[in-house]
Specification:
Blueprint lengths: L16 H7 L2 H18 L4 H14 L9 H10 L5 H14 L6 H7 L2 H8 L3 H13 L1 H9 L2 H5 L8 H11 L9 H34 L7 H5 L45 H9 L5 E2 L12 E2 L26 H18 L1 H9 L4 H5 L5 H15 L3 H9 L2 H11 L3 H17 L4 H6 L2 H9 L6 H17 L2 H10 L1 H7 L9 H10 L6 H12 L2 H11 L4 H15 L3
Antiparallel strand pairs: 1-2
Length: 568
């Protein structure tokens, strides 16, 4: 059996079979799969060698694709997952994990054939953890079934500090889909698990703090006498990570201290789930790491996913999800998983968001200083989400070092990847609270944003966010700040790049360009007119806005164009 049938797709014989399957046209793929499934389903009833070959075919064929298998075929594969032959069992498990990595009736079919009993018998084996991860992450119905049958209690088997990464990943999957309606008892039980994770957050931040202090007193861990004399010192791994118990190092070169707030302990507090309670409290806060079960890396250390992608995108492709091998506890890795889990939590239901804020659980995220960019990217996105939910939340973040947090990323450490999300965060904070603009300027943030804009290595999205940042700052800032920003080049940036700025800021762009004219300074105004008129793209953009359906926007554009063209 092969792909060289009369299908429309051209066959490139130099491609691997998996590459070919990923590129084949959808119609051809489904026709091919429909033709082949009966044959490979029959092989599942044959010898163990045939079973393995058939299971490998299913794994390779449907990798990163959504396809609903016939119920009888699915159940055959599920039965083989219980095989005494480890090779057969592993390959069958891989296919079953894939089958629940997207919403379909395959979830229901598996539950109808004693999936719950199978989970009870095998949890917390790594394959079963991966299976549960997908079940709760991609199907509300499957999540409800597991929760009603003791899944939350089962998760407490993973609270060992040495399994922090696995525990955080499972909680993230639990809250991946929103809880449209949730009763207080269930909400309290879920939040209780997150309170345990919150303690793990503080522990891992403390490890980061210890490591940073250790680096401050010793430029390199090798020269530390405490480490040299510690009987528990382990050999550096390939990542130059020191596994000594003395300092819990992982050489990320962080050199800023995290001041741990012991008052953040909320282990024994109860969930609070409404806006009023939050306000009263204010008056008194790479896939991540996924484990593939293939031959090549089953049991090997997991690969790290690039977290520059949006958190939501971790669950959007149709690849099977696996989980980490957490035999080596790594605080950097743990911080990434923990931040991602909390981000999912606060987006899943309003009750969790208000509980998170009322218990000031956001504070450690704001106080952290680390060079772990993947972690900082997630935290920036989480803080941006929070500040856009309530104006009080935005003020809370500002009062608890959000500006300093952004300054650390953009100005002090000049982190290229994390700076993009930090710019988005500070832009939204200025939008809600313009009174912070002078402080933002004094922190040299706009200067660094300009440098990023003109950096040849900056990505397109960075250019857009830098331009948006400049518009908000110049439109809402005082005249003094406006003049300073114009002097360093922010006005020129906006005038020369109006078409990349978000549409929601069009009226603000007009306001900024209009503010550039100075009353009583004809010499300066004429120079400005000459500069603006020479920009054909800008003039065309203003003329397009004149035809806009919005009367207000059209009139503003007309007024600006008259101001540019006229000499009065």
């Amino acid at each position: 059996m092969n792909l060289n049938k009369d299908y429309k797709t051209q066959i490139n014989e130099t491609q691997t079979r998996q590459e070919l399957l990923l590129e084949i046209e959808s119609d051809d793929f489904y026709e091919y799969a429909f033709d082949e499934i009966p044959y490979h389903s029959q092989l599942l009833d044959s010898s163990e060698e045939d079973q393995i070959q058939s299971l490998l075919w299913f794994k390779e064929t449907f990798h990163k694709r959504s396809y609903i298998l016939p119920p009888e075929t699915l159940i055959k594969i599920f039965t083989l997952a219980k095989s005494q032959n480890n090779k057969v069992s592993k390959e069958a498990f891989y296919v079953i994990i894939w089958s629940v990595s997207f919403p379909s009736n395959m979830h229901e079919s598996l539950f109808e054939h004693d999936l719950l009993s199978f989970i009870y018998q095998t949890f917390p084996q790594k394959e079963c953890i991966s299976l549960c991860y997908n079940l709760v992450a991609f199907s509300e119905e499957s999540r409800d079934i597991l929760i009603k049958n003791g899944y939350l209690q089962m998760l407490r088997m993973l609270v060992d500090p040495n399994s922090t990464n696995i525990f955080a990943s499972q909680l993230r999957s639990l809250t991946n889909l929103p809880f449209k309606e949730i009763d207080q008892i269930l909400a309290a039980e879920i939040f209780g698990l997150y309170q345990i994770l919150f303690q793990r957050l503080k522990e891992n931040l403390q490890q980061s703090f210890n490591h940073q202090q250790h680096q401050n007193s010793n430029n390199e861990c090798e020269s530390c006498s405490d480490c040299e004399n510690d009987q528990n010192v382990l050999q550096y791994n390939k990542k130059n990570s020191c596994d000594c118990n003395h300092c819990s190092c992982n050489h990320d070169n962080s050199n800023n201290n995290f001041h741990r707030n012991e008052n953040n302990d909320c282990e024994n507090k109860k969930i609070t789930g409404n806006k009023n309670e939050f306000e009263s409290e204010l008056e008194s806060e790479s896939d991540d790491i996924y484990k593939s079960l293939s031959d090549e890396n089953c049991g090997n250390e997991s690969e790290k996913r690039n977290f520059s992608d949006s958190c939501d995108e971790y669950f959007d492709d149709n690849d099977q999800r696996g989980h980490i091998n957490d035999s080596k506890d790594d605080y950097n890795l743990n911080l990434i998983s923990i931040a991602s889990a909390f981000f999912k939590l606060i987006k899943s239901n309003e009750q969790f968001l208000y509980a998170f804020m009322s218990m000031r659980m956001v504070e450690p995220f704001l106080d952290t200083h680390t060079k772990n960019e993947d972690y900082l990217i997630i935290v920036c996105r989480m803080l941006t989400f929070i500040c856009n939910q309530e104006e009080e939340f935005a003020q809370f973040l500002i009062d608890h070092n959000a500006i300093e947090f952004v300054t650390y990323i953009i100005v002090e450490e000049e982190m290229k990847r994390a700076s993009l999300d930090a710019i988005v965060l500070i832009t939204d904070l200025m939008f809600y609270k313009p009174e912070i603009i002078e402080k933002v300027y004094n922190r040299q943030i706009p200067h660094c944003v300009l440098d990023m804009f003109y950096d040849d290595e900056s990505c397109g999205q960075c250019l857009i966010e830098a331009a948006n940042f400049s518009v908000v700052m110049m439109a809402l800032g005082s005249q003094m700040i406006f003049s300073k920003l114009k002097e360093i080049g922010s006005y020129t940036l906006i005038a020369e790049n109006v078409k990349i700025i978000d549409q929601m800021y069009h009226k603000w762009i007009i306001r900024v360009l209009y503010r550039g004219f100075v009353t009583g300074r004809d010499d300066l105004n004429n120079d400005l007119r000459d500069f603006l008129i020479e920009n054909n793209e800008l003039i065309d953009w203003i003329k397009e806005l004149k035809e806009n359906d919005s009367v207000d926007l059209s009139q503003s554009a007309t007024s600006l164009l008259d101001k540019i063209i006229s000499k009065t």
